[in-house]
Amino acid sequence: MVADNPRPGLHGRGKVLIARAATVLMTVALLLGTAADAPGDRLAPVQWRMAWSAPADGDAGGMNSEFDILLHGASEQVLAMATGDHSVRVHDARTGRLVRIQHMSSAPVAGVWVTSGTVVVLTGKQDDGEQRLQAFDAATGATLWRRAVNLLSQERVPGTGHYSGPRVVVTERGIVIVERQFEPLTLLSLDPRSGTAGARTVHERHCDLTAAGARSMLLLLDYCAGNRMRLSSVDPSTLRTEWRRTMPSPALTFPNPRQIGDAYSLDLTVSGDGYAAAGDAFYAPDGRRLPIPREAPRAAGSAGGSQWSEPLYLNGEPEGFDMSIQSLPAFLTSLDMDTRRLRSLPLDVPSGTTTLVGTAPGKAFVLLGTGRIAAYILTYGIPTGRELFDGVPLDAWPDACGLLSAADLRPIADGYTPSPATPTRFGQRLPHPAQCDWIPPTDDAPVVSLAVEWVSSSNATARRIYAIETTGIKQTLAYDATTEDPYLLDYLRPTATGSSGAPETVVNAGPVIVRLVSTSRSALRLLAPLVRDQLLARYRLARPAPTPPPHLRWSSPTDGHLQGAPTVSGDAVYAAGGGRVYAMDAFSGRLRWSRAISDYVSGPLQSAGDLVYAGDSRTTLHALDTRTGRSRWRYSPDPSPDLGFHFLATRGRVILCAGSDIIGLHATTGRRLWRFRTGGSCAWSRPRQAGGTVYIDDYAGAVHALDLATGRTRWSVRTGADERASPWVTPAGKAVYVAGADRRVRALDTATGAQRWSTRLGAALTFAPLPAGATVYVRSADYEVHALEARTGRKRWSAPTSVIEPALGLTVGQDRLYVVTSAGIISALDTATGAERWSAPMGDDIILGPVVHRGVVYVSTDGGVVHALDGATGARRWRMNTGDALGNDAISGNALTHANSLLYTGGGGNVYALHP
Amino acid sequence: MARVRQRKKGSSSQAKGGDPPEPGPGAWKAARTWVAGVASAVLIAAVGVVFTAWYTASGTDAVDQIGGKPPLTVGHVEVELDERPLVLREPVTDARDRAILLGKAASDTALAAMLARHHVATIGDMTATVVLVGNRSSLRIIDIEPRVLTRAAPSDGALLVPGSAGETGTVELVADLDRRPVRFTTKEDPSTAYFTKKQIDLKRDEVVTLSLSIVGAKAYYEFDLVATVLTGGRSEEIVINGPGGTPFRLTGPADSYRTEYRRSGGGLWSRITPDPACTAAEKC
Q1: Does A439 contact B102 at a Cβ distance shorter than 8 Å?
Q2: Do B282 and A255 make contact, defined as CB atoms within 8 angstroms?
Q3: Of A39, A99, A582, B164, which is most buried, counting CB atoms within 10 Å of its CB?
């Protein structure tokens, strides 16, 4: 019939040719179409492609550290995630679609697994004594079974075998529970479909043990007395050993032969399809030792095989490469059965906060630091040798030394020279160095180190990596909110001691991500924008227009976290950060000088006369010249106090509280003039001065009034001596108000120490009394704020609050008492009645303030945001982010200081001057 | 000639058919030859068995001994320098060495080589980790002691202070270079040499990891370790050098240092410049 109705213009032979050509084309198209998804003879894995991502419960995290169990389970069909609100979210693993939210009991979810269409959930905490294991059908949500289990928490017994793996392992063939952490190590098997108990075994004594589960098998790795190490496969249903391999014994150590019971690290990782990495060796699911040398990875450009195991590792670098330069992306590593090598491929997310939470054939599920979970699909293609580089040609990596020039660094010092790193990465030689140090001509100037951390296959991929990286930084670290732009973020990397921070800047423009490191944040402020602009020009992208916050007068960086509030004295601001003391112009922020003191300077600083005073971690008091920063004198108390010291610089004296000694120093020379020994430590005391008398409390509950000039005792009064706590002392006028742990507020005569009045309240007093006019305001540990008559001590009113954070003070202004009444809420109370006039939610926990100036109330909230509110109405006037994500800048007391018609504060390692 | 010939004949006959020798005057000779052959074979087999047994027991030892292979091989030597304050003999002034010290681009190997060039030493104490491999079927390490090669004034060229102080582990075996004789003792009994009471027995290919602590505060010391090994009834001394074949180095603290660097969290060293007038005096 077809032959009878030929198309116009086509002959029979032509039709055949066309049909053949079409067939060939379709075949080719089909082959190409499937090539991306299925392995063929010449095809090999070339990329992990993100298929979907979905929100994950960031609070839940990826791991239950109590039981060493993942809070996510995955199979080819289902991904199940624990949430922080005691439920489990079930997603379609192929599409990411949320299938259902399964609410569990009132106990928190402690572990989630998916096996054979069943979701298994562990609930409960270790401290609660009993936990519950339950299973529901992944498709319908119907509960299949539930039972109580007991995962005992035990104290370690020296010399006994110890279990260090997950307390529950779920496989298709059985669920295995390790009931005890110490001998006898008992393993119990449950049927995954019914939850009924099956076999129970006790592991050999005098063995340290760990375990790991694959989809259908359980592996045990033990290290037993006699220096024996073994890897065993155990049937999860019968707990019978299926195979056992003796591993090379750890080397004997001398003079400390290793004993069972010592903390020995048993390192066992198992892929979903049963390939194991134990120590330095790899094993197939049938127990064969695989000749895969961990220390000899393939070269990045070598041809790869097509048979890969499911991923074993998610690391910040390809497994097996010694990386002196950290790469930004995460890498998934599998075993290549054809080439007998470890094989890694990069993901399009940074490694810092990623966790591999599940695998299935050809799939990997990764928890991202941004609170999302992503599903990756392994795609196949013809390897080019650039898979570790995300397919990017090596000559696309820019020359790290070419991103800056000596002229760029000239404002810091003349004569910087570049020092490039060997241009190799992943075993391949790059055309240009990916890392470059700029070495200063002298050691006084800072080194600047620049590393090209990644070049993505597209601008969009680089943007995603950068966005996740910077989101994580801003959530957890101190950063510079005033210089941040879409391409650049300056922040402080935590140091090992945690008391300081290391300045770094991450830059992204086009497909390139660069990180700069220096000891000087000022240097990074100068140079990072130059690197950014050069990359923007290279990729023909527009430069961002600077948009400084409207209330910012200036911000000036320090080289570490601020220690204490900035101190304003005349036209100078002094701050301590990163072990240095900084002096800045109060009106421009220009750095006048900085001086290294120690690895830690305990703020706040104090300034008096032409000296600024700073205490350091070595419990030494330094006096620096305010004009030059040069050290004029220093003083170390003897004996050195265990808890550091507080000091007060006033009226030609510096008063130190060190241990049980109160010491008076000559403010100009540092010479010790007098010493007074208290009955208890005054390490927590903050000396107060009024009228030539210094008032100091001690830990024995006493208050001492000493002559500032001579140290002569004017009087000493014991208050609540049996309470073993320092009272709070505030001198004002003719009275010294003392609030103590004995629940009493006292007014003492400043001249004699005689008690004028004493008022008992309902709980210990938790903050220094605030005298204001005829009233004294105090806070007590039962969350109450009290107003007492200053002359008699009679209580005028009390008002309830729900916070007692000591750093949150009381402030009075314009007939209002400003107080943080509950987390994140500031309130104005009528000073006469205590009635609330207004309250304002700040949206986050208030961590500093309140401070009042000219009718404006200032507070700082968690995350480093300064809020300005109208003192009369509570209406918000403005807010500004200081970039102190977690309150890293250890500011005690009010860190918001008014002077020179400006508001000074610190955050993210910066000192800020704000227009009120 | 006849004997030779007969042997040839006999051999030929055996070669042809392999039949037993026929009785007769020549047969007796042939029988003797046959018995002698069997006896020789038995003897050779016996010698083989004895040799094999001997070789298995100590032959490889003899071969190793004849070949000059030492009874011990030093598999690995390491001195823990991470997170320890370190001192160099001289300040780092060479441009290339400054780049290695101050930057991040230099490899660990380049940094280690630079530090070695400057005779890097820990202050006051050090722990050497030495891995020894046995090369005899049985041997006993009967003594190890430091041998001081150089004693000089404490190093003061450059002090490198890491950001965080390294932790000192529990020292159970320690040698004090300031005391004579220098030997390892226990912390509890510093007067008794440890190896007079205890030794280390090793078999072939067996590995022992030594964790040896050495202290010294009065001077700059370069030293090596000398292990005395007893094997096959004779003793040998094995010299254990520091990493890279250089001596181990340890220095006492100096009163002051000509340069001082502190490492930041970013891994960069930065020069600390204390006020000269303030370094030693309370008042500046």
Answers
A1: yes
A2: no
A3: A582
Which residues in A lie closer than 8 A to residue B269 (C-beta atoms)?
447
Q: Shortest CA distance to A175 belongs to which of A112, A231, A224?
A: A112
Distance CA(A553)–CA(A566), nearest Å, equals 15
Residue B80: count of CB within 10 angstroms of its CB: 14
Residues with Cβ within 8 Å of B252's Cβ and at least 6 positions away in sequence, in order, are: B123, B124, B154, B216, B217, B218, B219, B220
Query: Residues for chain B: how many in total?
Result: 284
**In chain B, at which residue ranges do the beta strands (DSSP E only) sit?**
72-79, 86-88, 121-123, 125-134, 139-152, 158-161, 173-176, 184-186, 200-202, 207-215, 220-231, 234-240, 248-251, 259-263, 269-272
Tens digits of per-residue pLDDT, A609-644?
999 999 887 688 999 999 999 999 999 888 777 666
Residues near B158 by beta carbon (within 8 Å), at least 6 away in sequence = B87, B88, B90, B91, B92, B118, B257, B258, B259, B260, B261
Structure tokens at A493: 């990397």
pLDDT of residue A225: 79
Report which residue type is found at A465.
Answer: I
A500 chain-B contacts, CB cut-off 8 A: 163, 264-265
B93 touches chain A (CB under 8 A): no
Element holding A27 (H helix, E strand): helix A12-35
Q: Please provide the size of chain A in residues.
A: 916
pLDDT confidence bin for A394, thresholds 50/70/90: very high
- Cα A186 from Cα A298, distance rounded (Å): 42
| Neighbouring C-beta atoms of residue A95, cutoff 10 Å | 12
| Close Cβ partners of A88 (under 8 Å, ≥ 6 residues apart) | A80, A81, A82, A101, A102, A104, A109, A112, A119, A121
Contacts of B125 (CB under 8 A, 6+ apart): B168, B171, B213, B214, B215, B216, B250
Measured between alpha carbons, how far is B229 from A168 in angstroms, rounded to an integer? 50
pLDDT digits (tens, 9 = 90+) for B41-88: 888 888 777 767 666 666 666 667 666 778 888 888 888 887 789 999
The helix (H) or strand (E) run that includes residue A12 is helix A12-35
Distances (CA, A) of A824 to A819, A831, A860, A867, B74: 11, 22, 10, 12, 64
| pLDDT, greater one: B43 or A433 | A433
Q: Are A504 and A515 in contact (CB under 8 A)?
A: yes
Helix residue ranges per DSSP H, B103-232: 108-117
Cβ(A776)–Cβ(A764) under 8 Å?
no
* Chain B residues touching A499 at Cβ < 8 A: none
Distance from CA of A655 to the nearest CA of B (A): 18
Q: Measuring CA to CA, how many Å separate A786 from each of A114, A701, B151, B260?
A: 57, 22, 72, 54
Instruction: Check if the beta carbon of residue B70 is closer than 8 Å to that of residue B139.
Output: no
